[in-house]
Specification:
The chain is an alpha/beta fold. The chain contains eleven helices and 18 strands. The structure holds nicotinamide-adenine-dinucleotide and zinc ion (2 copies). Nicotinamide-adenine-dinucleotide binds near residues 198 and 289.
Length: about 375
């Protein structure tokens, strides 16, 4: 079939919205009509060429939500009309990691996904016409497009009542933040938490800490507007970031020991070090969710660890997508998470590059594409 999609043709250049061809879903695959898609830093990072593992031509986009249009042979868990959220982090349910409750890093299709292929090593995307060049899939999702073909194991079936413009945010940053607090750190009731960064991920972490029953949630950011949003998600203390953030946090916490849980959601390795330092001696746990630039390292004084601080990383918030995303969406539907403040701009697919500009200007949390 023919459809419109935003193609990364050349690194460092705007995406080109154009007609491309999408081949039929193969066994185990599903054709999804996208209704909404968030525009995320990872898309912009890849488009810029800064990511050495990036490839072109490719259809970008990974924060998609839509409706199942058709299923390929052997697909049993999804049917036409189901509402789904796309998962760049799939859940096959069978691999060594899927069967272990400690991780969400499914290994089933990782290698081919990293190459921009669907699991059988080929693409469904191509340029129109006979012999048209193949176009690769980005993050296994390619949701800057009217339709996508994805493996069944990379689609989470959600409550059909959930508005898809909010649901798409659960495809990446929001679930990452919520999960960092709820799955990775497993924040305990009555504790003190610090969240560095109040973007989509950090705000999700604030909400996750609140849902876990944290008593105090200190949010640290450079922007007053973003701190205000953190308040809306349950932050009890707001702090404008500077080089003394750690000292100020220690002063604010009981006995000057630091926080029970800290979260880093900026991608800045200096902030990661601050998050380790602000974690309480004896048992403080620092969860790193931000993605650092290639080659950057985290500088940790070993004494911080010997005296009981721990550091954990969290990919997609440790959420096993097919099981976990529908549950998080249900929490939203029950009124436990306020998603509307995260949708800052509504744009068309043709305006996708404007979505990047808005992100660069830090204008709002998320631009959401609405497909017609
Ligand atoms: N682990 C994962 O699976 C995963 C998933 C999605 C995104 N991420 C990463 O998480 C990070 C955050 O993503 P986002 O979408 O929320 O980004 P964002 O840019 O919207 O938010 C980052 C926030 O950090 C703040 N900040 C910058 N410097 C700071 C400092 N010194 N102290 C305190 N705050 C500071 C900014 O003001 C901004 O509000 C990125 O690195 C992103 O790549 C990770
Ligand atoms: Zn994302
Ligand atoms: Zn798996």
């Amino acid at each position: 079939m023919k459809m419109r999609a935003a193609v990364l043709e050349e690194f460092g250049e705007p995406l080109v919205v154009q007609e491309v061809e999408l081949r039929d879903p193969q066994p185990g695959e599903v054709l999804v009509r996208l209704v909404n898609c968030g525009v995320c830093h990872t898309d912009m990072y890849t488009a810029s060429g800064a990511d050495p593992s990036g490839y072109a031509p490719a259809v970008l986009g990974h924060e998609g939500a839509g409706v199942v249009e058709r299923v390929g042979e052997g697909v049993t868990s999804l049917a036409e009309g189901d509402h789904v959220v796309t998962l760049f982090s799939p859940q096959c349910g069978e691999c060594v990691h899927c069967v272990d409750p400690r991780t969400n890093l499914c290994m089933a299709i990782r290698a081919e996904q990293n190459l921009g292929h669907l699991p059988d090593g080929t693409t469904r995307l191509k340029r129109p016409g006979d012999g048209g060049e193949d176009i690769r899939h980005f993050m296994g999702t390619s949701t800057f497009a009217e339709y996508t073909v994805m493996p069944e194991i990379a689609l989470a079936k959600i409550d059909p009542e959930a508005p898809l413009d909010g649901a798409c945010l659960f495809a990446c940053g929001l679930s990452t933040g919520l999960g960092a607090a709820m799955n990775t750190a497993k924040v305990q009731e009555g504790t003190t938490c610090v969240v560095f960064g109040a973007g989509m991920v950090g705000l999700g972490a604030v909400a996750g800490c609140r849902l876990q029953g944290a008593e105090r949630i200190i949010c640290v950011d450079l922007s007053d507007d973003r701190l205000e949003l953190a308040k809306g998600q349950g932050a009890t203390d707001l702090m404008k970031a500077d080089e003394n953030s750690v000292e100020r946090i220690l002063e604010m916490t009981d006995g000057g020991y630091g926080a029970d849980y800290t979260f880093e959601a900026t991608g800045n390795v200096k902030v990661m070090a601050q998050a380790v330092e602000a974690a309480r001696m004896a048992w403080g746990l620092c969860t790193v969710a931000g993605v650092a630039g290639k080659g950057e390292t985290l500088d940790v004084i070993p004494r911080w660890l010997i005296t009981g601080r721990r550091v954990a990383g969290s990919s997609f918030g440790g959420v096993k997508g097919r099981e976990g995303v529908p549950k998080l969406v249900d929490l939203w539907m029950q009124g436990e998470i306020d998603v509307d403040p995260f949708i800052s701009h509504r744009i068309t697919l043709d305006e996708v590059n404007k979505g990047f500009d808005l992100m660069e200007a830090q204008d709002g949390i998320r631009s959401v594409i609405e497909f017609q």
